[in-house]
Amino acid sequence: MNARTLHADYLVIGGGAAAMAFTDALLSETDDRVVMVDRRHAPGGHWNDAYPFVHLHQPSRYYGVNSMPLGNEVLQTSGPEAGMYERASAAQICGYYQRVLSERFLPSDRVRYFPQCEYVGDGTFVSRLTGRRYDVEVRKKRVDATHLSPSIPVESGPRFEVDSGVSCIPLNDLARVTDSPDDGYVIIGGGKTAIDACLWLLDNGVDPAAICWIKPREAWLFNRTYFQPGELVGRFLLGLGLQMEAAANARTTDDLFRRLEDAAQLRRVDRGVWPTMHKAATISDRELEQLRRIDNVVRLGHVRRLERRRIVLDHGSIPTGPGRLHVYCTADGLRRRPPMPVFDEDRITLQTIRPGLIPFNAALIGFVEARGGESRDKNRLCPPNPLPDTAADWMRMTLVGMNAEHAWTAEPDIAEWLDRSRLNTSAGLRRRLDDPEVARARELFTANVRRGLERLAALARVASGGA
Ligand SMILES: Cc1cc2nc3c(=O)[nH]c(=O)nc-3n(C[C@H](O)[C@H](O)[C@H](O)COP(=O)(O)OP(=O)(O)OC[C@H]3O[C@@H](n4cnc5c(N)ncnc54)[C@H](O)[C@@H]3O)c2cc1C
Question: How is the chain split into domains, by residue range?
Fold first, then answer.
């Protein structure tokens, strides 16, 4: 079959949250044309294969693309998170990205979207359905929107050996269970997906005593109450102020985390275990209360092998049996890849700058690309800030993110973009400076930010083995 040649200003590889937010920014700020390629059948990336009961762990209000709201963007008036902004489910997110594609991208006649296509390098991709090859002549840049793509359990399989006949499922299949297991559930994993599995079981009436939770590591989690935008942006700024105050007064790294916990910025499920992990997930007080009902928590490291009668872990083994359903939640949700410059002469690699918040960062990179200039200056404004894994990463991530914010606010057009970007958690802050809550939060932040960043830099140096 003959190869087809396409022409585009940008070739965007991937059709997930990063690709969508970046392309949306190009559509808003330029007249450029884009070819977008994804091996999946629909836009939205990993959300298309997510477990059915997953929700964003942040408000929908600052997820998605800049030009289209996700959901109603209102404060919840009832339910366990009344007073916080709503959080979309996977189904809502996938529907949203379909709308962005069909109501904005395709009608613009500037985006050509190729689903079910594998990018094989050098501007070439191949349809997984027809085998047809496409060569793209790229006038400006190739955009790698796959660098941060998470690994998800349903695709990566368990990270341990499983003997034949043992019932072991990815958490996606938990929603398809038809017969309750006689001896309960074994949830394997310490991250956000394992938390979601435990919460889903508890919320659906499973007795906490019927859950055994194998937790290789304990995590520091962000307090969701503070990650609220819009009307509650004063609270978001207060959170930053409290973090800077904790940093400014911290004597050691442990002291820093103790202070962050006392200031209700970081949470842990088990108050008797000192966390070593941080993946920037958020949690609410109600969720913490629920999770603390599970007493049977196994802390013997990672699972190595699942046998019919025994689970072998790094530091020992525990009994199991055919009456138990083992659920693995062990993929590396936030995949850590080595950082690289975001901007090259002919390539852009979408990465995070402000911690987490993949859509925000991708949209910002799109805006910085559109305003032009030298790659060196664009890279100065967009320093890569790899996704966190350990508690110590919180310090590096906060430092790099805050210093980048400082550089952005010195550029009037970026500051203006930040103020109107719906993906920016602190958008609209400048219009609320008269609000007494905002004014108090600003005072606390301003009083501590300088000293806080200095202390963080010093503590981060010590943590990384420096003087
Ligand atoms: C369960 C879960 C919940 C999360 N919740 C949040 C949240 O609340 N807030 C938040 O900010 N982040 C959250 N995240 C982080 C999440 O990683 C991002 O929000 C975001 O969806 C990731 O988007 P992405 O575009 O980087 O990756 P993906 O969604 O993986 O998209 C990348 C796409 O590239 C395609 N691709 C890769 N290689 C090729 C190739 N060679 N050819 C063609 N196509 C290719 C893949 O098929 C994929 O569709 C969550 C992650 C998980 C796993």
Answer: 4-150+335-409, 152-218+285-333
